[in-house]
């Protein structure tokens, strides 16, 4: 039996443009990906978010069919959160064509009383002030994870500092982390995140994987570098980072309450990496929603085999 897990962030509608194809009006939002990924491990996942009157009912049904509890999702008149993004030949890079986030900016976050004692809280990427409101309404959470994005580094850096200081685990993608830390390397950026109060920092690096940083027993920096699962065809990376976060949180929810060890974090990073690879194989969350325990475990076995280091060490000749 896992710990109950609360996921907050956006649920919305995406339009995705890539060099090969496009998809219009598909399921998007950080919660949509993170919560489904968390449900691979966790017995109970509740969502706290907001949607508009135009949100398609079949997307609600798809999320509910995976087991996501949506009693904490508010419904409001007007349009849902929507995002249009364009990817280029280098799919690690994208630009926002347009976004309608008025429903999110106006949202006064309310966590229902029945959900406030969930021990694991996942604050997906959204306005830092709203992340803080959620944290304040869930003061007893024994494990808090957070994510952010570039525009909040520039618009609300002081609130982002507060979010990270209240997070046990925080993550950003590589470009964002370097900008936030004014750093030239991933390790500098990760250590800066740790200096802001997080116990663990994760720097997401797209097709190059992720880097986990923490502190060793003597205060030294502990590092784990995890490569991405190699894909022959990359369809759409939207939501891969949210999937990564959700799978990590879902796995950690299966552990005893409290802060996980560095070794358990490493396992969670691996599970998140494998889960994220499914998201990249389709537009929207289609591949993630259709993933099964069997397909996940098969890919996990392949991934472990790819990354396994042979036992023993070659003898180095002394000069």
From TrEMBL:
Q: Do you know which SUPFAM superfamilies this protein is assigned to?
A: Ribokinase-like (SSF53613)
- The residue ranges of the Carbohydrate kinase PfkB domain are 34-286
GO MF terms listed in the record are: kinase activity
User: GO cellular component annotations, sorted alphabetically?
Assistant: cytosol
Q: Mind telling me which InterPro entries this protein's record contains? A: Carboh/pur_kinase_PfkB_CS (IPR002173), PfkB_dom (IPR011611), Ribokinase-like (IPR029056)
| Keywords per UniProt | Kinase, Transferase
- Database matches in Pfam families: PfkB
What is the superkingdom listed in this entry's lineage? Bacteria
Q: By what name is this protein known?
A: Carbohydrate kinase
């Amino acid at each position: 039996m896992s710990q109950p897990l609360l996921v907050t962030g956006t649920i919305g509608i995406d339009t995705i443009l890539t060099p090969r194809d496009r998809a219009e009006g598909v399921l998007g939002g950080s919660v949509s990906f993170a919560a489904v990924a968390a449900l691979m491990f966790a017995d109970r996942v509740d969502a706290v978010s907001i949607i508009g009157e135009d949100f398609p009912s079949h997307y609600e049904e798809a999320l509910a069919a995976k087991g996501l509890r949506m009693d904490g999702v508010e419904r409001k008149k007007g349009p849902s959160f929507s995002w249009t993004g364009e990817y280029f030949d280098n799919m690690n890079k994208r630009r926002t064509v347009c976004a309608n986030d008025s429903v999110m900016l106006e949202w006064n976050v309310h966590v229902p009383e029945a959900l406030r004692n969930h021990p694991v809280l996942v604050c997906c990427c959204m306005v830092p002030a709203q992340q803080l409101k959620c944290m304040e309404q869930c003061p007893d959470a024994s494990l808090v994870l957070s994510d952010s994005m570039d525009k909040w580094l520039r618009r609300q850096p002081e609130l982002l500092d507060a979010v990270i200081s209240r997070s046990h685990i925080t993550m950003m993608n590589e470009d964002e982390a370097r900008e936030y830390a004014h750093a030239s390397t991933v390790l500098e950026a990760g250590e800066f995140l740790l200096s802001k109060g997080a116990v663990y920092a994760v720097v997401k690096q797209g097709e190059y994987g992720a880097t986990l940083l923490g502190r060793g027993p003597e205060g030294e920096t502990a590092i784990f570098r995890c490569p991405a699962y190699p894909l022959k065809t990359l369809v759409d990376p939207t939501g891969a980072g949210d999937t990564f976060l959700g799978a990590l949180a879902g796995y950690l929810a299966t552990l005893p309450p409290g802060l996980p060890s560095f070794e358990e974090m490493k396992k969670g990073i691996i599970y998140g990496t494998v889960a994220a690879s499914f998201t990249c194989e389709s537009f929207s969350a289609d591949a993630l929603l259709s993933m099964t325990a069997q397909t996940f475990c098969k890919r996990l076995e392949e991934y472990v085999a790819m990354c396994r280091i042979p036992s023993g060490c070659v003898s180095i000749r002394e000069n």
